[in-house]
Specification:
This protein is of the alpha/beta class and 490 residues long. It is built from 18 helices and 13 strands. The protein has a four-stranded parallel sheet with strand order 4-3-9-10, sandwiched between helices. Strand 5 and strand 6 form a beta hairpin. The chain is elongated, with a radius of gyration of 28 Å. Bound molecules: adenosine-5'-triphosphate and zinc ion. It is an enzyme of class 6 (ligase). Its EC number is 6.1.1.16. Its main location: cytoplasm. InterPro entries: Cys-tRNA-ligase, Cys-tRNA-synt_Ia_DALR, Cys-tRNA/MSH_ligase, Rossmann-like_a/b/a_fold, tRNA-synt_1_cat_dom, tRNAsynth_Ia_anticodon-bd. It catalyses: tRNA(Cys) + L-cysteine + ATP = L-cysteinyl-tRNA(Cys) + AMP + diphosphate.
Length: 490
């Protein structure tokens, strides 16, 4: 069996992946701060780590993987949004969380095992902070609690910077209550109207970084296998998570492997809410771009490379998926192609996997490979799933069959114009034989592909689910036969 290899940001090397406990492989991924719709950039880590989750489930068994992706529902950005809109914080976070779950499902992601909301783990955060103070890694001052960065000598190891460099270059908040400008907030006081919880340091709320450390420890233990997120979080967020967790847990290494996806960009800049250069997953879905197409485009670039979103890629993905859906119906249940699995095991090489899917689909088309293999292989990427096939239904459908039939109709019209009714009628009869009723009165330049079918809905449904799409392969075969017979296939 091929070994899973992952590029560990902490060592900057591609390494063999060996879980601490193969009976329970554990992964934590930083989830969204819920005050606005997820933009397309936010969808990237959700998809990348979903593919990893699927791979781990495949290799270690579905019941032997625990995937945690949190919901940050206490954060100053949320408070600001509440103040702007006059809405309650609870309404905003509940609504945004629901949107997030719907949008992530629409792009084909499995639900993680746990989706902890920060507000439900305040007690664990307070306990962890108290522990850090007791161990000398944190101190309370003026209602705040700060992490003493100097107390953790490996601080900066993940992002490869020294504390002195960071101090020189960083825009850290200088505050009178800090021993060192680099120290970061674990707890801060809340004024009236701000969300707050009782604590040994008065009414207050947690800082963002401690949320992840506390939730990860509670659900996955002091040490677990994989920690993921976008590479924009490497510093300071992940650096701070590492420091807090190691110091609270007697030096135990928080995660064995750190994985970071690169950014989705718009004209060379990170797509982000703060820059305002974003569009949401929902915008695209509402525009009619199917979730499966979004997923495909995202996986067409390796997760460690920056990527751009272009209309051309969307169209290309749509064409490919249409074709694969058409080819993938029928046949046996199917087992995935081992080579595809090997690709994904090699640092989630989704690009190589897609290339292989093209090759497999060609084999299916030539009747050399069972369609079940295409389905099972695509499923490793979360593609071609039954419940996502709906997008094809009712859409205009263009493929090899319709193109050839189109050509046959044009030929028939040309023959009629030359008064060669015998051959024109023969074409009509041939089409009739394969269940296509020719409607007369069509002129050259009309769009015969749409007008030729007696039952217009049917052609659109041909590549839908199950047995219906079986017809589509049959139709393609028949159209090719007629194409050859009438010399319109070249
Ligand atoms: N453009 C992007 N490409 C890929 N991943 C991204 C992108 N923007 C954010 N992420 C990732 O999405 C997840 C949620 O991020 P977050 O809620 O902080 O969104 P954000 O757009 O970065 O917010 P802001 O713009 O306000 O900084 C994180 O794992 C983050 O790394
Ligand atoms: Zn986090």
């Amino acid at each position: 069996m091929t070994q899973i290899r992952l590029t560990n940001s902490a060592t900057r090397r591609k390494e063999d992946f060996t879980p601490l406990d193969p009976g329970n492989v554990r992964m934590y991924v930083c989830g969204p701060t819920v005050y606005d719709r997820a933009h397309l950039g936010n969808a990237r880590p959700a998809i990348v780590f979903d593919v990893l989750y699927r791979l781990l489930r495949h290799v270690y068994g579905a019941d032997h993987v625990t995937y945690v992706r949190n919901i940050t529902d206490v954060d100053d950005k949320i408070n600001a949004r509440a103040a702007e809109t006059g809405r309650s914080i609870g309404d905003i976070t509940a609504e945004t969380t629901q949107w997030y779950l719907e949008d992530m499902a629409a792009i084909g992601n499995l639900e993680p095992t746990h989706m902890p909301r920060a507000t439900e783990y305040i007690a664990q955060m307070v306990a962890m902070i108290e522990d850090l103070i007791a161990k000398g890694h944190a101190y309370a001052a003026e209602g705040h609690v700060l992490f003493r960065v100097r107390s953790y000598e490996k601080y900066g190891a993940l992002s490869g910077r020294s504390v002195d460099d960071m101090r020189a270059g960083a825009r850290v908040e200088v505050a009178p209550y800090k021993e060192d400008p680099m120290d970061f907030v674990l707890w801060k006081p809340s004024s009236d109207g701000q969300p707050g919880w009782d604590s040994p340091w008065g009414n207050g709320r947690p800082g963002w970084h401690i949320e992840c450390s506390a939730m990860a420890a509670e659900l996955l233990g002091d040490s677990f296998d994989i920690h993921g997120g976008g590479n924009d979080l490497m510093f300071p967020h992940h650096e701070n998570e590492i420091a807090q967790s190691a110091c609270a847990h007697g030096g135990a290494q928080m995660a064995q492997v750190w994985l970071h996806n690169e950014m989705l960009q718009v004209e060379g800049k990170k797509m982000s809410k703060s820059l305002g250069n974003f569009f949401t997953v929902r915008d695209l879905l509402d525009k009619g771009v199917p979730g499966e197409v979004i997923r495909f485009v995202m996986l067409s670039t390796h997760y460690r490379k920056p990527m751009d979103w272009t209309e051309e890629r969307v169209r290309e993905a749509e064409r490919t998926l249409r074709r694969w859906r058409e080819l993938s119906s029928g046949g046996s249940t199917g087992v995935e192609d081992e080579r595809l699995l090997a690709c994904l095991k090699d640092d989630l090489n989704s690009v190589g996997a897609i290339t292989l899917l093209h090759e497999i689909s060609k084999g299916v088309d030539e009747a050399k490979i069972d369609p079940g293999v295409l389905r099972a292989s695509a499923a490793l990427l979360g593609l071609l799933k039954d419940d996502m096939g709906e997008w094809l239904i009712g859409r205009e459908f263009e493929n090899e069959a319709t193109r050839l039939i189109d050509e046959l109709l044009k030929l028939r019209l040309a023959l009629r114009e030359k008064k060669d009714f015998e051959r024109a009628d023969a074409i009509r009869d041939d089409l009739d034989q394969i269940g296509l009723q020719v409607i007369d009165g069509l002129k050259q330049g009309d769009e015969p592909a749409r007008a030729f079918v007696g039952k217009p809905g049917e052609l659109a449904r041909l590549s839908g689910k199950g047995d219906v799409s079986g017809q589509s392969r049959w139709l393609t075969k028949e159209a090719r036969r007629l194409g050859r017979k009438w010399g319109v296939d070249g």
